[in-house]
Design a protein that fits this description.
By secondary structure, the chain is an alpha/beta fold. It has a domain of about 290 residues: Metal-dependent hydrolases (TIM Barrel, Alpha-Beta Barrel). Helices cover about 30% and strands about 20% of the residues. The chain has twelve helices and 16 strands. Strands 1, 2, 3, 4, 5, 14, 15 and 16 form an eight-stranded mixed sheet that branches. Helix 3 packs across helix 5 and helix 3 runs parallel beside helix 6. The N terminus is likely disordered.
């Protein structure tokens, strides 16, 4: 009896392992790789253990084969610059965890991330498989650190935390933008001075002296904020700076050059005025594709801005503005950019590969070795009537049903429950 019980357990474990390791071949697909390979027709993509393992292999070996019937397969879309999973209902304060008045550069909101938020399932319906979640911080110009999460809904769906530092510059309701820019530069300059001094001290000593000198004091333990600044100076994580006015953008580019920062600019409302400098410095910009209302800092933004920046050679990322529920419409915003001069290839890159490059995410392209985050569409993903037919996150297929679907079914299906609340 005991032997039988052990055998049953072993069989169950073997079945679970086998299910996890199931390889999948998606055949006969129109594959938008977002790589130099471009678009492949009647193509085959093989995924295994969460990764893309082959494209058009000579010999096909897979546990499961899915015929795409010529439909479009793209990388999973990547959202950014929102509070998905940190805010459930914006008007209800107890569901908001994306900001804190006392927050500073060390603020990491990932501990409050709710992978089972109803907004996550809703965003999957828009083809979103990964998202860069950014806190709003508090009174400090440093709003905290972003983190990357997949939209699987699993409890372990945070891919990487503390992946980028968010700073808010530009116009102020109180005070001067000059003070904030000066303060930011001084912070980097002071930290760089300490690093240079420590480096020079080490270089002055020989290995033998370092080993025998007992008078040397132990290295001073750095504060948490100092460690973050040093990571920025070392290029270990990007600095994402909100700014719109062209002079602010040039000031940020000067900081990037002086301190070797991995800089990403968010907003860039007047970016078209300095598009050449942005392109030459290889600085990505995150913009709202449908932002076309002028402000004092962005008098020149229009629906043509995205096309103008891309034509100038700038790596453009599209994000949606407003409530995190708007993330669902990321592809529609990209479609509006297409209607205003952006090619479909560039529009797709702006919501996949370019986001991955800006935040060092191993996704956003259909290439061997990339994460198997894929979406099979019913038709052109930029069309309103198109739907997600199948979705894979880390090689695992996920449904796109959401609370919205449950509510629709609840009130369109006959049941013993009342149709709705009435007076």
């Amino acid at each position: 009896m005991k032997l039988l019980k052990i055998s049953v357990i072993a069989l169950a474990l073997a079945s679970a392992t086998s299910a996890y390791a199931t390889s999948i071949a998606i055949t006969n697909a129109t594959v938008h790789t977002v790589t130099e390979q471009g678009t492949l027709t009647n193509a085959t993509v093989v995924i295994d253990n969460g990764l893309i393992t082959a494209i058009n292999p000579e010999q096909l070996t897979a546990d499961q084969t899915i015929d795409a019937m010529g439909k479009i397969l793209t990388p999973g879309l990547i959202g950014s610059m929102n509070q998905l999973g940190l805010v459930e209902v914006s008007a209800v304060s107890r569901t908001r965890d994306g900001s804190e008045k006392k927050a500073d550069i060390t603020f990491d909101a990932s501990a409050a991330f709710n992978p089972q938020s109803s907004a996550i399932a809703y965003s999957r319906k828009g083809g979103i498989t990964t998202n860069v979640v950014t806190p709003r911080g508090g009174d400090s110009m440093f709003k905290g650190q972003a983190f990357v999460a997949d939209l699987s809904g699993d409890l372990d769906s945070i891919v990487e935390n503390q992946t980028a530092v968010i700073v808010d510059l530009g116009s102020k309701s109180k005070g001067s933008r000059a003070f904030e820019l000066q303060k930011l530069r001084h912070k980097f300059a002071d930290a760089q001075k300490v690093l240079d001094k420590a480096k020079a001290k080490v270089e002055e000593k020989s290995d033998e002296t370092k080993a025998t000198d007992k008078k040397d004091k132990p290295a001073k333990e750095l504060k948490r904020d100092e460690k973050v600044i040093n990571a920025l100076l070392a290029g270990e994580k990007p600095l994402v700076a909100y700014a719109d006015r062209s002079t602010d953008l040039l000031a940020l580019l000067a900081l990037k050059k002086e301190f070797g920062l991995d800089l990403v600019i968010a907003g860039a409302g007047d970016g078209i005025r300095v598009a050449k400098q942005l392109a030459e410095s290889n600085t990505p910009v995150i913009i709202g594709a449908i932002n076309n209302l002028p402000t004092f800092d962005a008098l020149h933004q229009s629906l043509d801005s995205a096309a103008a920046l891309i034509d100038a050679g700038v790596n453009v990322v599209f994000s949606v503005s407003g409530d995190m529920h708007n993330l669902y419409q990321l592809r529609f915003d990209a479609g509006i950019a297409v209607a205003n001069g952006v090619t479909k290839e560039h529009a797709l890159a702006a919501i996949t590969a370019n986001v991955a490059d800006a935040f060092n995410i191993n996704a956003g392209r259909i290439a061997v070795g990339k994460k198997a985050d894929l979406v099979l569409w019913s038709a052109d993903p930029f069309e309103l009537s198109t739907k997600v037919e199948k979705m894979w996150i880390d090689g695992v297929q996920h449904k796109t049903t959401s609370r919205h679907d449950a509510l629709r079914d609840r009130y369109t299906t006959k049941s013993a429950m009342p149709r709705a609340y009435t007076k």
